[in-house]
Amino acid sequence: MENLPDILYNHVKDIFPIFRSITGRGIRKTLGYIATRVENFSIYHIQSGTKVLDWTVPDEWNVYGATLRRTTGEVMIDWAWYNLHLMQYSIPVCARVSRKDLEKHLYWLSDQPDLIPYRTSYYKKDWGFCLSAHQYAQLTDDEYDVEIRTELGPGHLSYGEVVIPATMTAGDEADEVLFSIHCCHPALANDNASSIAIAVEVIRALQETAHRRLSYRFVFIPGTIGSITWLARNGDRIGRIRHGLVMSCLGDAGKPTYKQSRQGNAPVDRYAAYLVQTRWGGKVVPFEPYGYDERQYCSPGFNLPVGCLMRSPNGQFEQYHTSADNLDFVTPEGLYASFGFIMDLISMMETDFYPHSLAPYGEPQLGRRGLYKAIGGGDGDASPRPAFDQMTLLWVLNLADGTHSLMDIAQRSGKPFPAVAAAAEALTLAKLIAREPAQSVPMPAASSVSPDGTSVQ
Questions:
Q1: Which conformational region is residue 110 in: left (phi greater than 0), alpha (psi within -120 to 50 degrees), or beta?
Q2: What are the extents of the domains in the chain?
Q3: Nearest to 251 by CA among 197, 190, 199, 322
Q4: Is 185 annotated as a binding residue?
Q5: Which of this chain's residues are annotated to bind Zn(2+) (predicted)?
């Protein structure tokens, strides 16, 4: 039986060869792959020409072949050799061109001579070939035959979505967590196949979880135009999004990098920063209006609490948007660690709340509720340590005034969040705190003491 790291990596291997773009057969095939592995997965098709916010859904693009040949017929570049050889959204061409004119349509990396770059021209009609510097050096003839067999015309933009409803809150009342995954890049294992693979298994794990306080929505979209289209079509749902995360570049060996939302101190920002600082290492970087789809969700009109999780950040590793972002660059271990980080993040989202004390006058008597150790002593006793200690209980009780979340309590007390959450659960079961404030919490009746030492009410 496969273990989860291998399952994740095999998803990447399956997805990697599919020739994806922002529209067309490749992205639909990728969505179809997800649909066969995830329950209740829906695929939507939006017609070309549809207005979405300030944008328009583009024509659909499909590829049937592309070659660059010497006039003798010798093939120098063939899209069939490697998906990245053809610039995305190249228009159809069948012509003999001079070497000088060809130069305007060639893309290579002089500082990485063995690699093929990834280039696009989604919104400008153009064509081009991407090749290694070594291949470029072999193009010494005066003329070449270009044949690009593409189809660009009215069609659809496709995206996929799955909603996992809350089980402990009425569906129309539950806060929602938005996960966004772009799935439009061909032959790039880290920059997008890794996130698709991880998202599939996170969905499966959530669907198998019996108790969920939050609702989860996963959207698999083409970059930029996909998130803009989703936002344009889902304005009525925006107000329910409590947390959000864009997933990208999650399969390499780098430590986690969390990019904050525009808000900067949203709960998801605090949870991710806490995990980075206390468990997973890595770094937190501030929001900037560049990168992946977080910049659409965080545009000022929406200003959603959506951050971005990566390992090596986009544009900051030498394999980025090149043929080196291949199946050798991602690892089962890197994929599994990213999966673990996201599941930890979800656990914090599910667990955190603002506790309200039901016994706020003085410290409640913990002993008669089984929450105080029977024999006092130092911290050096030999008994196994519980999930939380006495001080964690006392911190939760003292800060349970409805203005401090469990995250606040963990940070102020210096106690681990899981310990604070466990203490809060024990106090809830003992009816000492609650998620919602009581209508009124009366102060216990006063008593006096008579001269003989007896208590008088």
A1: alpha
A2: 4-58+155-351, 60-153, 356-434
A3: 190
A4: yes
A5: 185, 191, 321
Which CA distances in Å does 394 have to 62, 84, 310, 331, 370?
63, 59, 37, 44, 14
- List, as one string, the DSSP characters of 307-346: EEEESSPTTSSTTTTBTTSSTTTS-HHHHHHHHHHHHHHH
Tell me if 71 sits within 8 A of 144, measured CB to CB. yes
Return d(Cα 309, Cα 257) in angstroms, integer.
Answer: 6
CA distances, 89 to each of 129, 222, 328 (Å): 11, 14, 27
Question: Any binding-site annotation on 182?
Answer: no
Q: Which CATH superfamily is domain 4-58+155-351 in?
A: Zn peptidases (3.40.630.10)
Residue 224 tokens read as 């930029």
Q: What is the pLDDT along the chain (457 residues), one digit of tens a residue?
A: 579 999 999 999 999 999 999 999 999 999 999 999 999 999 999 999 999 999 999 999 999 999 999 999 999 999 999 999 999 999 999 999 999 999 999 999 999 999 999 999 999 999 999 999 999 999 999 999 999 999 999 999 999 999 999 998 765 678 999 999 999 999 999 999 999 999 999 999 999 999 999 999 999 999 999 999 999 999 999 999 999 999 999 999 999 999 999 999 999 999 999 999 999 999 999 999 999 999 999 999 999 999 999 999 999 999 999 999 999 999 999 999 999 999 999 999 999 999 999 999 999 999 999 887 633 344 444 444 447 889 999 999 999 999 999 999 999 999 999 999 999 999 999 999 999 887 778 888 766 555 555 554 4
> For the whole model, what pTM was predicted?
0.93
Q: Residue with structure tokens 């610039």?
A: 87
What the block records as the tokens of 78 is: 């063939």
Could you tell me which CATH number the domain at 60-153 has?
A: 3.50.30.90
Let me know: does 292 contact 309? Beta carbons within 8 Å.
Answer: no
- 356-434 folds as Arc Repressor Mutant, subunit A (1.10.10)
Asked if domains 4-58+155-351 and 60-153 share a fold, the reply is no
Please check if 404 is assigned to a binding site.
Answer: no
- Residues in CB range of 250: below 8 A, 6 or more apart: 190, 194, 195, 198, 309, 310, 311, 334, 335, 338
